Each structure stands twice: as C-alpha cells, then as structure tokens.
Amino acid sequence: MEEHSAERLAAIVESSFDAIISKDLTGTIVSWNNAAERMFGFAESEAVGKPIYLIIPDDKRDEEADILRRLKLGERIEPLQTTRRHRDGRIVPISITISPIKSRGGELIGASSIARDISETRESDRRLRLLMREINHRVKNQYAIVLAVIRQTATRSRSIEEFERRVRERIMALSHSHDLLSQVDWAGVSLADLVAHQLKPFEAVQPVQIIGPQIVLDANAVLNLGMAFHELIMNAMRFGVTDVGGISITWRVTSDEGVDMFELIWSEQAVPYADLLAQDEGYGALVLSKVVPSALSGQATWSVDGGVVVWTFAAPLARIQIGLGSTPHLT
User: Fold this and answer.
1) How far apart are the first and last CA of the chain?
2) Do 301 and 312 meet the contact criterion of CB atoms below 8 Å apart?
3) How far apart are CA 320 and CA 225, in angstroms?
4) How far is 218 from 224, CA to CA, in rounded Å?
5) Is the dihedral of CA 91, 92, 94, 96 positive or negative?
6) Residues 52, 64: contact at Cβ < 8 Å?
C-alpha cells in the first residue's frame, strides 16, 4: 500500500505543469521534475546533486539563504513572487511555494519548492496598467474636447434648442469615433474606414468620391479628423451641395525637406455657404481652421472659387499614422 502511494505521488510530481524541486538543508538539489526542466532548461541529470544556486540569480542569493535559515528555525515561508535563472541566462519570473520536508521521526531534512512561471501574468498586468493609463489620458482629453464643444457652441447658438441639437450632434460624432477605436482596442483605424463611418448619414443624399492610399490613423488623429469630417458633412447637409460634382475627399503622402507629410483635400460644390466659410464664422469653421490643425501640429486653409469650397489640411505624417500602405482605396 505504501509503495503504491509512493508511485502515485511520483506520477503526480512528474506530470505536474509546475516545477517541483526538492533540496536538502545544504541547498543541494535532490529531485527535479519534467516541468522544472522545461522551465529552467536543465535536465534532471544536470541539476540533481548541484547547488540550488544553479538557478538563483546573483541578486536573489541572499533571499535563498534567508529561506534556508528560516526553514531551519521552523518558520513558515509564505508564498512569494521572485525570479530564477534559465540555463540560457534569461530571467524567469515565478511564484513559488516552499514547504519543509521532514523524516519519519519529524526531523527537518530539506525543503520542496513548487514554482509557476508568471511571465504571461506579469506581461498581462503590465499591459493592463498601460491601458488604464492610456484610458485615463484619453478620457481627460475627451473631457477637454467636450467642454470646448459646449463652450464654443453656446457662443454661436441663437436658441436653447439650437444649442442642444448641435451639442448632441457633435458629441455623437465623437462617440462614433470612439466606437471605431474600441473595435480595434484603440490600436488605430484606417482613414478610409473613418471617412466611410462619418459619411453614413450623407451617402444616400449625395455621391462622394474617396481616393487615397491606405493609412492607419492613431487614436488622436481619429478623434480630431472625425470631428473635422463631422463638421464638413453637417455643413453640406445643412446648406446642401449642388448635384454637379458632389463631394470629393482625397489624401496623399508627400515629402517636405525629408519629412513625410500627410495632405487631405475636401472639395464640394457649396455656393450657399461659401461666403460663410470664407469669413471664418461659426463653430465648424473654428474646428476646421484652428482646433484640428492645432491638435495635429498641422495647418488648414480654405479656398472658394466659383462656388467650389476646398478645405486643405496638412500635417506631419508622424502625427497622423500608425501604419502606411500603398493600396489605393476607391469609392
């Protein structure tokens, strides 16, 4: 019966996914299971009989000596997180549980360690902390944008009803950009997708031509260009473009003194409000001429010729993109 129990225990140790190592009171390795070989790179024949310092980093030697001292004093060792050294020299973060090993007569003769690799857990924790910091930063930025929207809309609204309607429209436009970003965990949105998303309320009214290379925008560019497209589209819907020509949205990448530049051009037939835009009046014009260019370290200009309104925006590509391809997107 005792022999059967010993065999069962040995099978459990060998099949464990955790590294199980035993050592005597001098710190010499006595047993070493398969998981320990996978975790630390040493075969059982290479580890058994060697000091446990074989896998202890130099900066953890005092920790190991203290563990052995406390075991001899009969103290309980609480589970802890620490590091060990792989055969190839890399450091492996682990959580470890240490238990005393006693003889039949109750005498302390060694200790067993159960170690679990927590590299993935630590990396997940690191990414979560980074994500939380990024979310906090983005939320603060959005508070500032929302407050600016409210303030600027209030100064240019003629009634409470108009103020409420325009604020709702603009905040919903921001939420649409957030929706796109959340779908990709804030990793970036293609410019073509952003344009198509913002154009949804308008596409049934007027044909829109979209031409440009594949560019993946970073989060800041998504939010700010999303605001710009919203204002342009709402102006077009509010005042109406002519049937001739419709709207054209094009973008390209150029080089200026060795610096890659992003350039976007929105053009439309817009006789009814060409004069208004030329005079730089209204919150939409403020967003397009100052707010968005400032946020992306760029410049924007208006031109009005024969009733055709052209908004040109240019900024360093580094302030716009995450990635750049060369496949045109045509609509």
Assistant:
1) 78
2) yes
3) 9
4) 10
5) negative
6) yes
The Cα 107–Cα 103 span in angstroms is 5
Whose CA is closest to 34, among 67, 12, 63?
A: 12
Query: What residues have CB less than 8 Å from 170, skipping those under 6 apart?
Result: 149, 153, 227, 230
- E strands, the chain, are 19-24, 29-32, 80-85, 91-102, 108-117, 189-190, 208-217, 247-256, 259-269, 299-305, 308-316, 321-330
- Evaluate whether 153 touches 166 at the Cβ level (below 8 Å): yes
CA angle 149, 304, 247 (to 5 degrees): 70
> Residue 109, Cβ neighbours under 10 Å: how many?
13
What is the per-residue DSSP string for 228-261? HHHHHHHHHHHH---TTT-EEEEEEEEEETTEEE
Q: Is 224 left (phi over 0), alpha (psi -120 to 50) or beta?
A: alpha
What pLDDT does residue 325 have?
39
Task: Tell me, rounded to whole angstroms, the distance of Cα 26 from its chain centroid.
Answer: 48
pLDDT by residue (tens digit) across 131-181?
667 656 556 556 566 666 676 667 667 788 877 777 777 777 777 777 777
DSSP designation for 28: B
- For 307, phi then psi, to 5°, come to 85, 0
Q: Would you state the structure tokens that stand for residue 140, as one six-digit string?
A: 């603060």
DSSP annotation of 106: S
Cβ proximity of 71 and 111 under 8 Å: yes
Global pTM exceeds 0.90: no
Per-residue pLDDT of 55-101, as tens digits, reads 999 999 999 889 889 988 888 889 999 999 999 999 999 999 999 99
Give the C-alpha distances (Å, rounded to integers) separating 268 from 10, 173, 210, 242, 302.
78, 21, 12, 8, 12
